[in-house]
Amino acid sequence: MSKNEAVTDYRSVLTGGQIPGWTPEVAVVLWRRMLGVLGDVNDIDTPAVHEKVMGHLLELQDTLIKVIEHVINIP
Description:
The chain is mainly α. It has 2 domains: about 40 residues, no CATH class; about 35 residues. About 65% of the residues lie in helices and about 0% in strands. The chain is built from 3 helices and no strands. It is flat and about 50 Å long.
């Protein structure tokens, strides 16, 4: 196995590798696409709606931080 093959083996199918399923690269692409669907939240004209969207994004951020902290603390 050459050096290039070894590196490819640890990449997801999405990035040209051989690993199917959920990998960090796939998760990043999914989140970027999901957030991209929202568009520019600063273009929301209604202050109440803008506040609600920002509140949900902050909750999502807090949840993701908790997940990261939990994963780091797993023995």
